Amino acid sequence: MSEYPILKTIRSPEDLKKLDPSLYGTLCDEIRCKLIETVSCTGGHLSSNLGTVELTVALHLAFCSPIDQIVWDVGHQSYTHKLLTGRFDQFDTIRCQNGLSGFPRKSESIHDAFLAGHSSTSISAAYGIAKAKTFTGKDGVTVAVIGDGALTGGMAYEALNNAGRCKDPLVIILNDNSMSISKNVGAMARYLAVIRSKPGYFRFKDHLENLLSHTPIIGEPIKNWLIASKVFFKKLLYPTTFFEDFGFMYMGPVDGHDITSMRRVFERAREIKKPVFIHVLTKKGKGYEYAEKNPGAYHGVSTFNIETGNPETVEGDSFSAEFGNYLTRLAKTDARICAITAAMKYGTGLQVFAAEFRSRLFDVGIAEQHAATFAAGLASGGMFPVFAVYSTFLQRSYDQLIHDIAIEKNKVLLAVDRAGIVGSDGETHQGVFDAAFLSQIPGFTVYSPSNYAELRLCMHKALYELSGPVAVRYPRGKENPLIASEISQNVDYQLTDSNRNVLLVTYGRLFAEILTAKQLLEEQHNIKISILKLVQITPILPGCLDMMMQYSAVYFVEEGIKAGGIAEQIAALLLEKGYKEKFRIRAIDNTFIAQGKDTECIRQCGFDGRSLADWIADGEKP
Amino acid sequence: MSEYPILKTIRSPEDLKKLDPSLYGTLCDEIRCKLIETVSCTGGHLSSNLGTVELTVALHLAFCSPIDQIVWDVGHQSYTHKLLTGRFDQFDTIRCQNGLSGFPRKSESIHDAFLAGHSSTSISAAYGIAKAKTFTGKDGVTVAVIGDGALTGGMAYEALNNAGRCKDPLVIILNDNSMSISKNVGAMARYLAVIRSKPGYFRFKDHLENLLSHTPIIGEPIKNWLIASKVFFKKLLYPTTFFEDFGFMYMGPVDGHDITSMRRVFERAREIKKPVFIHVLTKKGKGYEYAEKNPGAYHGVSTFNIETGNPETVEGDSFSAEFGNYLTRLAKTDARICAITAAMKYGTGLQVFAAEFRSRLFDVGIAEQHAATFAAGLASGGMFPVFAVYSTFLQRSYDQLIHDIAIEKNKVLLAVDRAGIVGSDGETHQGVFDAAFLSQIPGFTVYSPSNYAELRLCMHKALYELSGPVAVRYPRGKENPLIASEISQNVDYQLTDSNRNVLLVTYGRLFAEILTAKQLLEEQHNIKISILKLVQITPILPGCLDMMMQYSAVYFVEEGIKAGGIAEQIAALLLEKGYKEKFRIRAIDNTFIAQGKDTECIRQCGFDGRSLADWIADGEKP
User: Fold this and answer.
1) Domain of residue A228, residue span
2) Which residues of chain A have a CB within 8 Å of the CB of B395?
3) Is the model's pLDDT at B231 over the cut of 50?
4) Nearest CB neighbour to A187, from listed B115, B164, B338
5) B178, B183, B188, B190: CA torsion to nearest 10
6) What is the CATH classification number for the domain harbouring A444?
7) CA distance A307 to chain B (A)
8) B570: helix, coil or strand?
9) Contact A369 B154 (CB under 8 A)
10) Predicted structure pTM score
11) Is A267 a catalytic residue?
C-alpha cells in the first residue's frame, strides 16, 4: 500500500475521470492510507479529511476544475482535493515550512479557488466568484463545500440569504457529518437530524415529478397546478426545507460514501445553472478506527501514533488545560462563573468544566459574534461569563467587543487562547492581531502571562479585583520550563535589573527567548542587559514608562503585529514624555506569517534567543 | 395637542396600566405628535418609531418592566419606550449633548435593559440576560424586540440557533414592517412575506388545539397522536415556520397597530416561560404622511421641516453623494466596477449607482461579514468590488478583512463613510477605530482625503494604480469650504512649510481646524507653524517621516482612537529613527465619545481650531 499504485497515477482531475470506476474503492483506500500516514507525521486535520474522501472523488468526477471552481469552507478538509490535483508528490510537506498549505491557497494551485482557514465563509466567496463569472462571461459552475458545523456561523446564513435567489450557476454542498468540531449545536443541528431521518424525501419528490411528467396530457398541467397552488397544498405534496425556503433547489440527502450516487446528483446539479443545495451525509473519521470512535479528538491534531491512535491534543500540560482546570476550580465556589466556547470545548481546555458544570457551559457553535454579546448579556445579569476563544477567531467578535462589552463596561473575561504564533496552520490562524486590537478598545484590561502561575494570577485578578472587561491572552502549547518558576508577584510587570544601560522589554512567552538572549549576550558579547517583562499590557502602567525612561537603550520584542501594537504604543508614550534615547522594536511588520513549526516561525520572525542576541549586539556595537 | 394631556401623566409603565383603554388611541396620537415634533428639531430615527407606537404601548401593558426586561434591537426605535418610562420631560434633549441618548442606555434608566446601536444583537443579549435570571433566581421575562431588517444579520441567526431550545422565559418579538433600513433583502424577506400572507395561521392552530383539547376522551389522544405521528402528517396539520424549526413557539402574525390583540398575545407569551417568537406586523412611518410614503428617507434623519417633510439626508452636498456620483461615473466606462452596501444604499450615496447599474449593486442586508467576503470573491473573479460602509459597521467585517481580503491580497475597495466623529448617534456609532484597525492589517493601503477632490483622486488611484486592498475613509457630512480648494497634487501628503520649528500633522477633515489654529497662533501668539496633511495614512510614507525629523516639535492631531492609531505609529517610527525632539499627540484617549452635535463633539475632544491653538501655544511656551 505504501506504493499507492493508483493514487500516484492521478496527477489531475482528468486522470481521475479516465480511471475505471471499479477502481474507485481501491483509490479511496489508498487515499485514506496516505492521509493517515501523512497526518500522523505532520499533524493536521484527520477526521474531516477521512470523512470526505468519496465526496471529493465524486466532486472531481462530476465537475471540471479549474473551469468549475470549488471553494472549501474552513479548508482543512481539502487534503484529498490536493492529492487529486497534482500534489501527491509534495503531500508529505503539508503544513511544514515551505511545504503545501493545510488550507487551499490560490498561489499553490489553479484548483484552489479561494483561501479558507476560518469557518462559514465559503458561500459568500463562492457566490462572489459565481457572480464574477456571470459578469465576465466566463464558463463554469462555482461549488461551495460547507460542513454542518459551519452552518452554525451567522455568516453562512447571511450568504444563504443573499445567494439563494440569484440566477448564477452555484452549487452548495452541505457535508453533513452530524457533528461539528466538537458537538454540533443548536436548532440547525436538530433540524438537519430531522431531514436526515427522511432519506426518501428527494426520491419521493423526484418520483412524483417524473410520474407526472410522463403522464400523457394531464400530467404536466397537474404538476404545474400543484406547484402554483396554495401554500397549503404545496406543503403537502412538496414539503419544503429551510434551504428551499431560501430559494435553493434542494437535493438530498445523498450517501456521502457512495461515489456513484453523489456523482449522479452532482452532475445533475451542474446542469441546472442556478442555486442548488445538495445535502450529503458523511461519517467523520471514516476508515480509521480511532478517529471514527472519537472524531472530536482528531479534529486538528499535532502528530500521533498510527497504531495506538493517540493524538497529542488531549495532553494536560498546556495553557489551555491550565486555564480550564483553574476555571473549574474557581467555579466550584462561585456559582456566577460560566464558560462560553465557540465549538472549541476541547481546544480551549473546557472539557473538565463541561463535565462538572454542564449547565454553566455554553458551546454556541461557530458563532463568535453571538458568544461575545451573549456573554455581555450574562454579565449584565450579574454572572461572570468567561469566553474562551482562539485569538484568531476572536477577530470575529471585534465589533461586539466594542459595542456590547466595552461601552457599558460589561465584566466579561476573554480567555484568549493561541495568542501569538500558532505554527503549522499558517497565515489564517496566527494570533498576532489581538494585542493590538484589544488594547485599542477603551476600558479593556489586557494581560499576557508568560507561565501557568501568572495565568492563574491574571484570571483571579480579572474575576475578583477588576470591574470592567478583561482579556487574558496566552500562547498555544505548554509553558517553557525555563520560565515556569519565574512568577511575578503581581500581574503588572517584573524587572530584572542589572544596570541602567540596555533594557529588553517583552511580554508573554518570548520572555524565555529573552532569558536565552541575555545569557548569550553576557557570554559572547560581554553585554549586560536588564529585562522588563510586562504582564499587564493594557492599560500601559505609568510605572513601566518611568522605568524605561531611565535606560539608554530600550529593545522591545513583540510576538504580534507591529503597527499599532504594544511596542509602538509604548514608544509613542515615551516620546511624548521626552525620552530621547535609543528605542528599537522587533515585531511582525506588515506581513502574514507563513506556516511552519512554532520554533521555525519564531526563528523566522527573529524572535528566538539567538536572533535577539545578535540584534542587540548589533545595536550596541560602539 | 402641544400640551400632551394624557402622555404627560404617564411617568411609568404603572401609570400606563392604570389608563382607561378607551384613551389608548388618543395616547398614541399624542406620542406620534411628540415624536414628529421632537425629531423634526433634534433629528433621529422617525419612521421606525412612528411604526412601533402601539407595539410599545402593548409591551408595557403586558410586561412589567423593569422586572421583565426589554432589549431593543438597534435601539433606535426605543423613543416611545423612553416616553412611557419617565423621560417625557427630557425628551426634547434626545440625541443632544448631555441629553437623552437616541438608544437605550442602562445608565439612563432602569427600564433600559441593554445598550444597542448596531443591529442584530438583541437576541444574544436577551438570551444572556434570561439565562442570568435563571441562574440567579431572579423573576421576570426577557423580551427582545427585533426588526425584520435585523434578521438579515447573521448574528441574529446565531442567537436564534442557540436560544430556541433553552428553557428560560424568553420572548422574541419580530417587528415586521416588511422593509429594513432601505429595502429588505434576500430570502428571509420573501419568507416573511409568505407567512404574512397567512394571517390565519396562528388562529387555525389555536383553534384546532382548542377543539381537540375540549373533545372528550378522544380529543387529547388524537392530538398527541397527530403531534407524534410522522413528519408528513405533522406538516399537514401543523405546518411549521422557520422559527418553530428553531425551537420557538410561534405566535402570529399579529396586527402591530391593534393594542388589544397584541396585549393578549404578549400576556399569553409571558405565561409560557420558555422561548416564544411573536410575529408582529407594523407599518413603518405610520401616522406621518411623508414618512409613510418614503420610510427609507426618514430612517435616520438630521432635522426636517414638519410641513414639507423634507429630510436632510437626501441632500447632494456630502462625501457620501460625492462618492456615489463619482463611482457611478467610473462605472460607466468600467464594467468591472460593482458596489456593495449592507442595507445603507441611501446613507452611503449609492442610490444613483443603483438606478444606473441595478445588476451591479448588491444590497446584502445588514450583513457586513458576508459583504466583505462576497467582495473578496468578486475580486478573485476579476471584478472591482467597492464596499461602501459606515466606519462603525465595518467593525463587523474585521475578521473578513484580514482573512478573506488581505491574506490573498484581493483587490477590494472599502469606501469607509462616517469615518471619525458622527455626532448625535453617540458612542455606538462613532467611526473612531477604523484608522487604527485598518492600518494594522498587512497589505492594506488606507487613504483619508479631506475634501471631495481628494476623495476622487484616492478612489481613482485605488482602482487603477494599486493592486491590493484599499480603504478610502471620509467623514459624515460635507467638505469644509475652508479646505474645499486645498487639493493635494497626489494622494500622499501635502506640506505647508513656514519654518523648521513647529509642525502640526493631521489627516482628514481636521485639516480645516488646523488652518484655523494656524491663523490663531500667528495672530494671537506670534507662533508660526508648518502643516503636514497626510492623505495616505497606511503604509506610512518614509518621505513623511524624513520631513518630520527636521522639525523641533511635532504636534499630531488625530480624529480617532489614540492607542495604536496613526499618530502613535508615526511616533514609534520616529523614535526608532532617532528623533529626539518634542512630539505631542491629541487623539481620543481610552474613552468613548458621547453624543452631541459634530461641532460639540469635536470641541469636547479638543479638536477645534481654538483648542488646538491653545494646546500648541501652551506647548510652545518658553
Assistant:
1) 7-290
2) 398-399, 402-403
3) no
4) B164
5) 70
6) 3.40.50.970
7) 37
8) helix
9) yes
10) 0.91
11) no
